[in-house]
Amino acid sequence: MIELELANGVKIPQIGMGTWQINDKDTLQELIKTANELGYSLLDTAAAYSNEISIGKAWTQLGIKREDLFLSDKVWNSNRGFEAVQSACRKSLKKLKTDYLDLYLIHWPASPKLYDDWKILNAETWRGMEQLYQEGLVRAIGVCNFKSHHLDALSKTAQVMPMVNQVEFHPGMPQQELISYCRERGICVEASSPLGNGAVLVNAQLKELAKVKDKTVAQICLRYGVEKGLVVLPKTTNPVRLQENLAVYDCELSDEEMRMIDAIPYCGGIGIDPDEVTEFG
Ligand SMILES: NC(=O)c1ccc[n+]([C@@H]2O[C@H](COP(=O)([O-])OP(=O)(O)OC[C@H]3O[C@@H](n4cnc5c(N)ncnc54)[C@H](OP(=O)(O)O)[C@@H]3O)[C@@H](O)[C@H]2O)c1
User: Fold this and answer.
1) Is 147 domain-assigned?
2) Which positions are annotated as binding substrate (predicted)?
3) Catalytic site residue 49?
């Protein structure tokens, strides 16, 4: 598995397994078993996915070595603030049956539209994240769904800048400005919903390109993220697709093909504006 390097030197696998909407414990156990055999180590979860306990049980019962996993978790919006984020992290560690996380992320920014004190809220949550990092409970820290104005504000008080920004990215949502912004500041971008939650898989232009490249549409979407230098986090409940989603290093997209994908208009996905997200999601 190809790895990228975060600003603090921590290596992160470029393809990880998304786990949102996978709650059944037997399904998770089976998927984690197959994923481990195939060479996945990055598991992307969140307190809000309600599957941390199942993931903790799965990797320990399967006898996977902790050092062979890259566990990434997220603090939910109801746990913003210096103290709350630290206590949330400790609870998540217990559920995941581990004493450290490889990556811990703020799930959503508090945004100016909904909170007068959004800058303070984000700054205080981030201070708690920095504390966890200093204590060695997390090897790297970052954010999700932060736009440039959220990052600009955070940079005024942060001692350590986020190492990762996990944002929705897929054909139809190329996030070009945000990716450039992050790249200039050494922030690694992770693509959440790299298949647009399944919606982009029926796009006619992508289907045509997939035929030409002798790949599946899912593989074209993932290759698109890989060529941009992103970490991609596809989710599947199908063990065969787990394998398919890793097989993207034997295909290259030309500049022209990349530009064609960049120009695809929005064609589905999650599409939530981070500035509209409340405490409840
Ligand atoms: N930070 C955030 O706010 C945030 C938000 C959204 C997502 N995420 C992360 O990103 C991960 C992925 O995003 P996502 O769950 O929205 O979905 P996604 O990976 O964009 O798409 C998943 C959909 O594509 C299908 N699929 C997967 N591989 C396929 C393949 N090779 N061929 C055909 N269909 C395929 C899946 O169906 P099957 O299961 O039937 O294969 C499912 O319907 C999440 O699980 C989560 O870890 C983070």
Assistant:
1) yes
2) 107
3) yes
Q: Above 80 in pLDDT, residue 279?
A: no
Pocket test for ligand 1, best of 193, 216, 237, 280 (most atoms within 8 A of CB): 193
Does the structure show a pLDDT above 90 at 79? yes
Q: How far is the CA of 215 from the centre of ligand 1 (A)?
A: 18
Q: Is 107 annotated to bind ligand?
A: yes
Pocket residue to mutate for ligand 1, from 195, 220, 280, most atoms within 8 A of Cβ:
195
Over residues 108-114, the mean pLDDT reads 89
Of these residues, 40, 49, 104, 133, which one is catalytic?
49
Q: Is residue 281 part of a domain?
A: no
> Above 70 in pLDDT, residue 229?
yes
Domain span holding position 37 = 3-276
- H-type alpha helices, 39-116: 52-61, 82-95
Give the SS3 label for residue 233.
coil
Task: Indicate which residue's Cα is closest to atom 8 of ligand 1.
Answer: 192
Q: What's the CA-to-centroid distance between 260 and ligand 1, angstroms? A: 23
The angle formed by the CA atoms of residues 133, 138 and 140, to the nearest 5 degrees, is 75
| pLDDT over threshold 90, residue 38 | yes
Please give the backbone phi and psi of residue 15, each rounded to the nearest 5 degrees, phi first.
Answer: -120, 130
Q: How far is CA 256 from the centre of its chain?
A: 27
Per-residue confidence band for 111, with pLDDT thresholds at 50, 70 and 90: confident
On average, the pLDDT of the chain sits at: 96
How many structural domains does the chain have? Answer: 1
Does 36 reside within a domain?
A: yes
What pLDDT was estimated at residue 278?
Answer: 74
Q: What is the CATH number of the domain that holds 172?
A: 3.20.20.100
Instruction: Point out which residues pair with 74 in neighbouring strands.
Output: 105
Give the rounded percent of residues in the chain with a pLDDT score beyond 70: 99
Ligand 1 center–CA 120 separation, angstroms: 33
